[in-house]
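Q: Could you fold this chain for me?
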Amino acid sequence: MAKIIECVPNFSEGRQKEVIEAIATAIASTEGVSLLDVDPGVSTNRTVYTFVGAPEAVIEAALSGARCAYHFLDMTKHTGEHPRLGALDVCPFIPVKNVTMEECIECARIFGERLGDELCVPVYLYARAATEEHRTTLPQIRAGEYEKLPEKLKDDQWKPDFGPDEFVANWGATVTGARNFLVAYNINCISTKEQCHRIALDIREAGRGPTAPGTLKNVQAIGWYLEEVNLAQVSANLTNFTDTGLHDVYEEVVKGAQGLNIPIVGSQIVGLTPLEAILNAAEHFIQKENLFILDEDQKIRLVIDRLGLNSLTVFNPKERIIEYMIQDSSDGPLVSMSLKNFILNVGGRCSAPGGGSVSATVASLGAALGAMVGWMTYGSKKFESLDTEMRTLIRPMHGTMKKLLSLVDEDTAAFTAYMEACKLPQSSPEEKEFREKTMQTCIEQAVSVPLQVARDSNSCWEAMKRIAEIGNINTISDIQVGAKSLETGVWGAYYNVLINLKDIKNDEFVAKVKEEIDGAVKTAQENCEEVLKAASDRQA
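A: Sure. Below is the predicted structure, expressed as structure tokens.
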């Protein structure tokens, strides 16, 4: 499986277009790297580059960008709103896919050592790669900024991790390390820089000092002014967006701005953001405003609107959300196919995709039909009194539909893994033992997937029965087809479990699974009959 690391170097140049493009070209021309975003700021005089690739590739790309910057940038002439320590101010490595934090730490160390040796510049390690507790955060290392660096380097406590402990005037120093995703988020205010900074001091975790902490955990913030748009901003870094989200920062800034009688006019995400950060904000607004939104793209639209993310530039999700940029779709090859191609693949001369994937597909369609009938009832004036209840009924059907859809590919993947295990060499006792152990692990997984299909399918019955009882009568045949599809999906799962159980040697596992799948079929049969009866009674 491909390993993907994100690297987000921040260079202290945001005004000279030709220099910004030269650094971008140096990064993008590195083999195995995809440059996803280049985000310059005129007032900050800083550009954030975002690229992804394999560990070795991102190290080379970061070094290429640094070498290019070394020829163009001169920190003795640099001014800007953003705190900075050097020409390449900070260069973090972030795990994205199939990569551990330890591997990112190693990338930071290799990069830092090579940068220090090749360019003869001081390099500090921070965040998860930090070697000293007092060097964990950027504000700690940046204290005094570039201007105080000559004095800082004379202090043994601030001896660089790599490179010389001498001041390099044109470069300053670089900070590199490993961390999780950080969201750079700015809120726009029609105010002065000083007013924004007052709000920043109130909200950031460090607050105004040890005796006056701020209101938000895992937030770093300052206030600055953007001459190019004639606005001030509260500029925040969310170092743990799962604990403190975009909505938390936005609403806290709004509260502070109200206290100062200054208006908020939207906000801005700098660089790329994880999808989760957007969806977390969506869930906050959905709950706060009692909204009913299930589709991912509509949730994103909601957040763009509520946070005013289009205020300075257009927020295009396909260009600003990292999962969309790296095409890290959760959809597998089968569910990504057209319906025609999927059916042709099933009907081809190959054992996969087979009955397991088809069972998951049929069950997913059953849940989808249940959700459809709910939607055909919800929002209609004729059934207005049912809106609140329909919200509670559509959600589980929609959620199960998506869960079952993911199992379409999982079933085929599990079967394929088992077939590959069967091909393992067995010319020695050790190889035979490893082959047998691997086969048993794979066949148990091949049983677990259809078992999950049965579980997920059976989770729909209560909602489906209620929809059959009160849903739009004009779609009653759809709920009937949906019920039989769910039942068929469970029956398909049952047969796929049974055919594989006979090859499993763990008797306890076999007995437990057999009991569960037998019960699942009985549950499906009984509930399907109840749904069909409810539908039939209404038709009568």
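A (continued): The chain is about 50% helix and 15% strand.
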